[in-house]
């Protein structure tokens, strides 16, 4: 089982719903976010292209954050989801330094926090909060090992890319272009 | 024109616009760790070479600094932790993939060992010293008999400690400035250099200082060589690497690095030491102070600049 | 300068409010008083309460989830609701912030004149505040007649106030939503098709083959179901044509983006009409069967060729022809989106007419993929006496100027409040609810004059918005999450209703709108119009009339009803009488001709920016609703301030750097109170700048929004009035940059 997410950049309008929904679902403290929108503009008026990307932790297959954690608080859970166990985290910040996507942040309580793919919902067969709320339905989540899952179907006939592949982390967030 | 920006107001404290998770505690700890590594290395080295009598400061007096530096460093490290109540979790497991983990254990070993090293010389440093307890007296005798073996252990531990301070940073590929294997050897050599500087400052023996000065010159030369290659590597690398290098070649860290670290911290003291070796009279404290200052600045600059460099955004 | 009514920023009362400590949440750091919340709560441990959102006017229905401690945790959409399809937009999801915002109005406030001549607000009890409002209403009724009490309203708070005012005997109300927003399209489409477009718009985007957006920026304006349907249309491979001088989000997802020169849209649309007619691409069946005035139209557009339009719009003739052909090829499944905020240049009703004519030529009315025949559930009226007939209404306020206006014009209501305009019907007092007039009305001078001239202003609001600084009495309303409100029944494909019920008790000393208006009504002796103890009785009665009940609605939230008015689409060749003078779709408008307006749209050139000035274009951001949400903690996190978009060529001309703060000055020498950050982007033309509306708040009590960004409204001093329905065209303003602080006193609004 390998959970992954596909983001359809042809439909994303960068509204930030995924950001707010994650905050209300997961009680993210104000001023912090587990996911965010990046706007990328290219070209010269009027030959322009615009891409919105809803980004978050990539739950990498080869995650540097898990490797560099001195206590094992950063670990891989079912389906390849990368999680942090708060009471094992000492707040050293090594994982934050090691993430090429700058997806982690120090929670005010002291431990390190980040996107959990809403594992508390996924366990019950629901989608993560961001996927559930997206008005354009551009977020697809599921099990890559299941050819009929939403994410597998989304990836099937489309071109896609990942972010910073040169970092060698094998990220599991696929951006459909 | 290419424009890339956060469109959802992301402005996480200490992460945006630049990473600033590690503040002064980490560079201080790296400096003190390197310093202690240097001191312990040379203490062990000269013991192994059998030069205990000619290098008293190196082998005995300077080693007092080592445990003090390590404890201070560990204190700084503890202070930096954001989830302090759980710090003990560090010592419930050893994770070989994490430099921070085996570094923590190495420190766990080397700190008491360095104390024991000092303790084993108490009788020489303070004539008439007695441990009062029979068990300790026995250990003291044992150590003094097995000093060479002890020195080998300390030598290896010192090298691990010295290299670890560099590998700790270079393990973080996500920070382009640290994403180079030169950092390990560079920090090791720098640590040795600062260690030598401390010993030189403490030493009252002219001959000893001469030996140390010659060694120091070699290490400074190696350091400069590694720094040049560091930048050559960056400039030949990917976009993020060249951007990282540019911080030092025209960017905001140009002055602090080339003036304070290289000029004042390496080249100038090297010149002074050479002059000293050729017979000119140089105040004893001057080169060591400059080297120590340069070493500290070097680590501050590397930690701060490294956090500014990032892959994305 | 001493004025009758000084603008009071509620900060003057700040210390008092916290000292009174009406609740434990008196401090900003409410977290200290709350139990520690750790991590997410599973849905099974949450209780859902049905509601419909009030953050914007789309009114999406959803569920407010409350945990075991009674704390509101999140709001999720109702899956069967056609407005949201189970997915709320970021404003709706962030609606919890409206509830938790500590800057909320907490208690009634009354304006007092102090001994030293200054004015400030003091806290009052509900008794006192309501007594005061009622006594003033009686006073106005006796002195001038109830008609002289006017109302500015929006949304459900406005509905309660409107009911109160009508029972009291006045119909002198105006919504900014008409003259300052969608008015031109109402009048234009009504004259053409005999039907209003309504809200949500009856655009069948999800089944369309071609979506044409004239300046509409769906995706940045977050009309929930329309953004969802546009996404579905993209999935189906629909052609999207966006006409916009700015590279909007919609433009980036479009098949064709026409980077039009601002203020020239009519020329483009007329040339499309020319191509459709003269290249015989129009829907002949539809035109023959249902329209009137084709020959006149054909003659009228004879010279409006694409080549002619090219010289005006900067859009190449080949592009004009190509896009016209694409529309014709997709017809009748084409949506020419009527837009929403369409008050641009003063000839907006004519531009909307052009869009309506284009729609008719394509036969894109009443067909799948075009404009469907919407229907709404008719909510039975709760028993009450007939409203009294006022001697004059908002229609008379216009003094015959805007014969084709279908609602009150806000600027007319303002002018009628100022004696020196000598209106026959004078307005002497205001009720305001659900709208922040100082930031939404153009021509601030007029607003200030009017606010100072009237004898009494009562404002009902949830937040200390700028409009509250002009009030004599401030009535703090509970948010939509804490109250019952009228049943939602909006037009849709399938008629439906939605229930709003409170998920929590009103915080602080706030009260629901229904309670406030009932209390005032009873003090005015209007008990018969408020014949209930709790508004839930009204809702229950109405629901029972409709065949359901409050019980049932609490469980399902939304209920669908079968259509009564016939199918969603017109059958081919079906006989249909349009609600116009001629009974047909009027390509040639008889109404307009009768009133002396151009019966068919004519392009008129509009002034261009002078040297060193740039046209100010403004719009929306998907995470905010006008100025309403700038202080919402969740939404302010997403976007805390606006920026001014500047083309790189212009930026290099002025030496502007990314993120640099500049003040803006317009052609009338008005200067923004606060500086705004520069965003250097290729997405905007070199002759224009763009800003998101709703920032630059000047009320200090809005702790998160105060001073953030600049208010585009301050730059809108030149109002281009639409002679047909009184619309206030706002895009005829030009700004220049001031890189140094002009040292202006903070605008006293």
Description:
The complex is a heterotrimer of chains A (about 180), B (about 325) and C (about 750). With about 180 residues, chain A is α+β, with helices and mostly antiparallel strands. Chain A has one domain (about 5-175): Alpha-Beta Plaits. Chain A has helices spanning about 15-25, 65-70, 95-100, 120, 130-135, 150-155, and strands at about 5-10, 35-45, 45-55, 75, 80-85, 105, 110-115, 140-145, 160, 175. The longest helix of chain A has 10 residues, at about 15-25. Chain A is globular, with a radius of gyration of 16 Å. The two termini of chain A are about 25 Å apart. The mean pLDDT of chain A is about 95. Chain B has one domain: Formate dehydrogenase/DMSO reductase fold. Chain B has helices spanning about 25-50, 55-60, 65-80, 100-120, 120-125, 135-145, 145-170, 185-200, 205-235, 240-245, 255-275, 285-310; one strand spanning about 5. The mean pLDDT of chain B is about 90. In chain C, the strands form 7 sheets. Chain C has a 7-stranded mixed β-sheet, sandwiched between helices. A 6-stranded mixed beta barrel of chain C has the order 19-23-20-22-21-26. In chain C, α5 (about 155-170) packs parallel to α19 (about 515-525), α9 (about 265-280) runs parallel beside α14 and α12 packs across α13 (about 315-330). The longest helix of chain C has 18 residues, at about 125-145. Chain C is globular, with a radius of gyration of 26 Å. Residues about 10-35 of chain C have low confidence and may be disordered.
